[in-house]
Amino acid sequence: MILLIAALGSCTDPADNLERRAECYVRYLVPEGQLLAELSLRREFEDQKQNGLQPITSPGGARYRGTLMEQVTLRGVAYQIEQLGGYPSTHTFEWNDAKGAPRSFTMELAAIPSFSFSPSPISLKKPATLTWEGAPLEKGEALVFMWESVDGRLTVPMDIIGTPGQKQIDFPAAQLSKLQPGIWTLYLVRKKQVRSKVENTDVIGLMEYYTRVDTITIQN
């Protein structure tokens, strides 16, 4: 029995213990109806451990939602695809490991078809509440508010880390005081980061959904 266990242990590939990582990224721009998906693959090599994780490619290529991605060499990104059309809330990436075994990772981010403030117009002296159409925030999600004055002279970003289940954002007057009276444009970025493990590969996923641009009146 001892000899059998030793024999089985000797069949273990040392490469199985080396670190592997897959980075999945999705960005959707509502005004343009444009989706960008990227996949980066990295692994550790026994003879290059001092160099950290090195970019690699997938035997047979990679796919996003069943469509073959283009192989690129851009900022360490291995595969990329751009599509025009509606927004799919489910994002599935497929690739093969170094031995040709299939790997798959799926992540989800809900859309924000529309949003509005109450009361409207917004007063700098009173709190205001933003609500949106669509699913509430989930774990790992955040909203970025991108305010820009219509003359383009002032841009005010506001990062909001929400609570899971939250479907409205309450802005105190102190937060709104960062703005000035006038006409502003505003769009939201719904972001979500996820971490998982697919077999022996650590997977990091990042999704960004850019809403349509709205015009908001700010009063004193």
Question: Can you walk through the features of this model?
Answer:
The chain is mainly β and 220 residues long. It is 6% helix and 53% strand. It is built from 2 helices and 18 strands. It has helices at residues 2-10, 173-176; strands at 20-29, 34-43, 54-55, 63-64, 67-68, 70-74, 77-84, 90-96, 102-108, 115-118, 122-123, 128-132, 141-149, 155-160, 168-171, 182-198, 201-210, 214-219. The strands form 3 sheets. Strands 1, 2, 3, 6, 7, 11, 13, 14, 16, 17 and 18 form an 11-stranded mixed beta sheet that branches. The protein has a 4-stranded antiparallel beta sheet with strand order 5-4-8-9, with no helix packed on it. A 3-stranded antiparallel beta sheet has the order 10-12-15. A hairpin with a 2-residue loop joins strand 6 (70-74) and strand 7 (77-84). It starts with a helix and ends with a strand. Residues 1-10 have low confidence and may be disordered.
Features of this protein?
eleven-stranded mixed beta sheet, 18 strands, mainly beta
Layout of SSEs?
Blueprint: H1 2-10, E1 20-29, E2 34-43, E3 54-55, E4 63-64, E5 67-68, E6 70-74, E7 77-84, E8 90-96, E9 102-108, E10 115-118, E11 122-123, E12 128-132, E13 141-149, E14 155-160, E15 168-171, H2 173-176, E16 182-198, E17 201-210, E18 214-219
Parallel strand pairs: 1-17, 11-18
Antiparallel strand pairs: 1-2, 2-3, 2-7, 4-5, 4-8, 6-7, 8-9, 10-12, 12-15, 13-14, 13-16, 16-17, 16-18
Give a short summary of the structure:
The protein has 220 residues and is mainly β. It has helices spanning 2-10, 173-176, and strands at 20-29, 34-43, 54-55, 63-64, 67-68, 70-74, 77-84, 90-96, 102-108, 115-118, 122-123, 128-132, 141-149, 155-160, 168-171, 182-198, 201-210, 214-219.
